[in-house]
Amino acid sequence: MSISQVERMESLSNDIFYDILRRLDGATLASAACACAAFHSISKEESIWENVCHSLWPSTNREDVRSLISSIGGFRKFYAGCFPLIVNKDVPVAQLDSCHEYLEEWSDADYYGDMDVFESVSPSDFVSIVDIRYKDKAIYSKVLWGIPDSDGTNGWFYNCPFRIDLLSYSDGNDANEDEIILSVSDGLPPVTSIERERKDGKLWRELRDGIRLSWIIVNKKAKQAANFASWSPLGGQRHWPTDNDFLLHFGSILPAKDILPCRVVECILVMKCKVIHSGEGEDNHTLLKLTELSMQLKDMGGSHLNGRNSLLVLKEALSCRRSKNYTEVLESRHLYSKAQSELKEERMRNESYIDRLCILSGIAALLTFWYCIL
Which InterPro entries match (predicted)? Predict the structure, then answer.
């Protein structure tokens, strides 16, 4: 049977092109749009980008989330804003001095920002869209409307440390409200015993390399969205606090130039997992349970941001630079960690200097006292 060659792209139907393009992921689709006019035209179809978003973020398939995305500009804009990761390399060394002095020289009004600006931000403006994948398989999706326990302008939320514990809040529309469990059928390696895992660390490596987290924050009022997670873990700890527990850190470095004297803060997303069953002998029913998924914001000194400042930082971060290059994300994190270490060393030197000064002052006072007596 002979197969006739296609000499011109125009001889193919747009329906065929559409069927091809709708099967691509977002990055490949964006590249294909630059190939020819036909691909460029079809790639503007909102339905294609809706399919891309549903494949990458299953939580966007909910009716209320689809309406939200349509109201802020559509799925194409949503993907363009949320697929690249937040990158902030504006961590100048000069800011370390001001960060070191803010406790002494900054008043409460300065530290907590301009109240007129704050009044334009409301906890109900933000929506969290969270998805977890393990080895390209969606294992958990959740949508959180607003920020929990933030009622009342003068309530405790605005003055207490900001924290969102995602697993503590239920939503009747969520498909996965039950316990989040990973097993061998999901791709976990069988663990015959915790003692064996402590030696070879196979389960830890598979979990660290296979888990992916997306935590998208949407500002309904500003019609902006961004992914505050780093997809892959930025760090972690085995056996925390017991041999059965694993701790994974995700996150990003966020700008806070006109909000805090340190000018940058760290968004920390914590995921904790616990081995609740390990196989013995021929039993390979290894089970891993997700026990915590939370968001916190910390300044360079390690202090938790309160709710008031956190809302301002989240709002500003939605306009932050983004990049699809994961190396830039790691570089941004490295710059922040380096500046943070320098600040810690500077504080330790100052504290050591003060301690020595106090000791010398005490010795001088003692000698003066004995001199007066004698």
Answer: AT3G44326-like, F-box-like_dom_sf, F-box_dom
